[in-house]
Amino acid sequence: VQARANRTNVHGFSPADHAAMERHRRLDRDLRGAIAGGQLRLLYQPQVDLRTRKLVGAETLMRWDHPELGLISPAEFIPLAEETGLIIDLGRWILEEACLQASRWPDSMVVAVNVSPIQFQQSDLVAVVTEALRRSGLPPNRLELEITESSRVTDPRLVSTIMWSLQRLGVRLSVDDFGTGYSSLIYFRDLPFDTVKIDQSFVRDRTSPDAEALLAAIIELARRMRKHTVAEGIEDETSAALLASLGCTYGQGYHFSRPVPVEQLLAMLEPGPLEARA
Ligand code: C2E
Ligand code: MG
Ligand code: MG
Ligand code: MG
Predict the structure, then answer these.
(1) Predicted local confidence at residue 36, as pLDDT
(2) Cα 232 to middle of ligand 3, angstroms
(3) Residues in domain EAL (predicted)?
(4) Is 70 exceeded by the pLDDT of residue 251?
(5) Phi, psi at 184, each rounded to 5°
(6) Using CA positions, which residue lies closest to atom 20 of ligand 1?
(7) Residue from 45, 114, 199 to probe ligand 1 pocket by mutation (most atoms less than 8 Å from CB)
(8) Residue 36 to residues 39, 80, 83, 272: CA-CA distances in angstroms?
(9) Is pLDDT above 80 for 217?
(10) Are 251 and 240 a contacting pair, CB within 8 Å?
C-alpha cells in the first residue's frame, strides 16, 4: 500500500504530493482571513538572565488556530505568507500587537519580535516600527527585532540601510539562528546588531566533542564584539549551567518555559525589583 501511495502518476506527482499541494493551497486561501477572523494568536516565550534566572523579556511567537485543521506551526505558514507577500500585513499586525502588550509590562522587560527578511524588502519597515512604537508608547530600547539571514534577500544594501535606520530609532537588533544557514561573519561585522541568538542546534545537540568549543567560541566572539548573547533551545539544567559558565548572558527554552499566553508570562513575574536587561 505504501509503495502504491507513493507511486507517481503521469505528471510525476504522487498522491502524497497532491495532498501536500492541496494543503498548501488551502492554507494560502485561508491565511488572509485568519487575521480578521481572530485565528492568529501571539505567544510569548520567557527570556531569563542566566545568572539570576530572572525574567528579562520574552520572544513573540505566532500561532494559527485554524477552525478545521487545528493548530498550525509558524514554520509552515510563515514561509507561505512570505511567498504571497501577506507577511507584510501580518508583520505589521504582530509589531503593533507585541508593542502594545509590552507597553504594559515592567520597564525592565524587552519584547523580541521576529521580522522576516521579506519585510526588509519593503522600505517602509522603519515607518511601520515607528508607528507601532508611537501608538503603544513603548520606548524603542524595549523592542528587539530578530532577523534571520536569508538567501531570499535580493537587495542586501537596502537591508543594511533599513537596519541602520532602525538602530538610529533606538530599537535593538538581534541576529536569529546565529551560526546556521547563510550566516556570514562579514554581514555580522557590518550590520548594527546588538544581540546574537545562538541557534538551538548548538545548544541541544552536544554529542560532538567539538560542540562545547563551538559554543564557547560563539560566546567569546559576541563578547569581544560587545554583543549580548541569548541561547535558545535550553531544555535542561546541564545546558543552562554550561551556558552560564561560558558567559552567555540570557537564555530561553523549555527548561524555563514554553511559549505561553501573555497572562501566563506576567504571572511569572516575581514581586519586587527585576534585573534589568542591560
Ligand atoms: P525562531 O525565531 O528561531 O524561534 C524559536 C523556535 O524554537 C520556536 O518555534 C520555539 O517555540 C522553539 N523553541 C523554544 N524553546 C525550545 C526548546 O527548548 N526546545 C525546542 N525543541 N524548541 C524550542 P516556533 O514557535 O514553532 O517558531 C518557529 C519559527 O517560526 C521561529 O523560529 C521563527 O523563525 C518563525 N516565527 C514564529 N513566529 C513568527 C512571527 O511572528 N514572525 C515571523 N516572521 N516569524 C515567526
Ligand atoms: Mg526568533
Ligand atoms: Mg531562532
Ligand atoms: Mg528559527
Answers:
(1) 86
(2) 7
(3) 24-273
(4) yes
(5) -125, 140
(6) 233
(7) 114
(8) 8, 18, 20, 39
(9) yes
(10) yes
The single-letter DSSP state of residue 116 is: -
Cβ-in-10-Å burial (0-12, 13-18, 19+) of 199 comes to buried
pLDDT of 35 strictly over 90: no
Residues 157-172: what's their mean pLDDT? 94
* pLDDT at residue 274 in the model: 46
What is the atom index within ligand 1 of the atom nearest the CA of 81? Answer: 44
User: Interface pTM (ipTM) of the complex?
Assistant: 0.97
pLDDT at residue 122 is higher than 80: no
DSSP string, 81-109: HHHHTTHHHHHHHHHHHHHHHHTTS-TT-
Integer angstrom CA distances of residue 199 from 30, 39, 51, 65, 187:
31, 29, 20, 27, 17
Cell of 221: 566572539
Q: Which residues contact 268 (CB under 8 A, 6 or more apart)?
A: 46, 55, 257
Question: What residues does ligand 1 touch, defined as CB less than 6 Å away?
Answer: 45, 60-62, 73-75, 78, 94, 114-116, 146, 148, 176-177, 200, 232-235, 252-254, 259
CA of 277 to the centre of ligand 3 (A): 19
Distance in Å, CA 66 to ligand 1 centroid: 18
CB neighbours of 202 closer than 8 A, spacing ≥ 6?
179, 211, 214, 215, 218
Cα(64)–Cα(34) distance, integer angstroms: 8
| Minimum-distance ligand 1 atom for the alpha carbon of 115 | 44
DSSP state of 59: E
Q: Are 68 and 261 in contact (CB under 8 A)?
A: no
Q: How crowded is the C-beta side of 107, counted as CA atoms within 13 Å?
A: 2
Checking if the pLDDT of 7 tops 80, the result is no
